[in-house]
Amino acid sequence: MWKFAKPLAFATLVAGAVFVVGWQVHAETNRVKFPENLDQLVHYTTVRRGNVTEHIMTTQDAIDAVKNKRPIPAGSHFVLVDYRDDKLHRYFVMEKGEGFGADYDDSRRTADWQFQWFWPDKSVNMDENTARCQSCHRGQADSDFLYTAYRIPRFDGTPVE
Fold first, then answer.
1. What distance in Å separates the CA atoms of residue 79 and residue 38, rounded to the nearest whole number?
2. Closest residue by Cα to residue 98 from 115, 76, 118
3. Given this model, what pLDDT does residue 64 score?
4. Which of 47, 26, 68, 64 is nearest to 160 (CA)?
5. pLDDT tens digits, one per residue of 103-123
6. Please, which pLDDT band fits residue 85 given cuts at 50, 70 and 90?
7. How far apart are CA 161 and CA 26, in angstroms?
8. Strand, coil or helix: 119
9. How far, in Å, CA of 156 to CA of 154, rounded?
10. What is the distance between the alpha carbons of residues 96 and 114, in angstroms, rounded to a whole number?
11. What's the pTM?
12. Across the chain, where does the E strand assignment appear?
C-alpha cells in the first residue's frame, strides 16, 4: 500500500499546486492613481453591451491632442465607468505618465500607459489582472493604445455612441 501512497500523495500535491497557481489572478499595484478631478473629466463616449454600460471620459487636453493629431500628454487619465444593470460596478483607469513604460519589459509595455481597476469606493480592485489589460490594449498601438480614439474626433459636446 505504501508503495503507491507516496507517489499518489505527491501527484495530488502537484496537481493541487498547478490548480491554485493556474487560477491566480496576479493582481498588482502600479503607478495609476484614481483621478482627483473625476467630475471635471469630459464624457466623450458611451459603449453598451447587453446589461453593461460604459461611460468613458478623459481630460479636455487629451481630447484636444487627439483631435489635433498630437500625442496625448503625460498626466492624462482615461476613465471607463462600468455599470451593470444600471448599478456602478467598477472603474477602469488608464493613466499616461512620464516614464511609466519603463516599469515593464518590452513584451508588456504600452508606451507610457498603465492600467488599474478600482471598486466603486475608489479603492484598488486587486481581483483584476492588469497584465491582461496591457495585453489587450497593445493591439491598439496605432491609436495610442485607446480603443475609442476614433470616436474623439466626432465628439462635439454630446457623447458619441
1. 8
2. 76
3. 98
4. 47
5. 988 888 899 999 999 999 999
6. very high
7. 33
8. coil
9. 6
10. 6
11. 0.81
12. 42-49, 52-58, 77-84, 87-96, 113-118
